[in-house]
């Protein structure tokens, strides 16, 4: 139990968690399983990416996909999250996943900037932002989304 690097066998379970979280988010995109699986497997196999899973009672309850990439304007790199999902009932695994990501990012001496974003619309109470701040991050901007029109309910 706890947080560990993912294996290919974890991808299906992690995708289920991601789908549950996405279904509650403001993101208006259909999930294509093959595309999601490919990216998760790439995170496992690409040295510039990583995928961690959180396990509780042998069940995956969250995951964190991270990437290290060169700035478009520099030879130095930044690290950021691609996706970070945790079942709300198991939020205690969020901080350990972020810590693992930060530790991994800092192993690369070219990584000068480490950034996390909240783009799901699921942090209305500010809990995730407070978690990031408690882990040493500083809010430096915001995410602005052009949300799809709200469609009236059809009877």
Task: Give the structure's gist in a few sentences.
Helix content is 30%, strand content 25%. The chain has a five-stranded mixed beta sheet, sandwiched between helices. Strand 2 and strand 3 form a beta hairpin.
Shape: globular
CATH structural architecture: 3-Layer(aba) Sandwich
**Quick check: average pLDDT?**
91
Largest sheet: 5 strands, mixed
Question: Can you put this structure into words, describing what you see?
Answer:
There is one protein chain. This protein is of the alpha+beta class and 155 residues long. The protein has a single domain (2-134), classed as 3-Layer(aba) Sandwich (Aminopeptidase). The protein has four helices and five strands. The chain has helices at residues 11-22, 33-45, 94-106, 127-134, and strands at residues 2-5, 49-56, 59-70, 77-86, 111-115. It has a five-stranded mixed β-sheet, sandwiched between helices. The longest helix is centred in the first third of the chain and has 13 residues, at 33-45. It is globular. The termini are far apart. The mean pLDDT is 91.
List descriptors.
155 residues, 5 strands, 4 helices, Aminopeptidase, 30% helix, five-stranded mixed β-sheet, alpha+beta
Topology:
Blueprint: E1 2-5, H1 11-22, H2 33-45, E2 49-56, E3 59-70, E4 77-86, H3 94-106, E5 111-115, H4 127-134
Parallel strand pairs: 4-5
Antiparallel strand pairs: 1-2, 2-3, 3-4
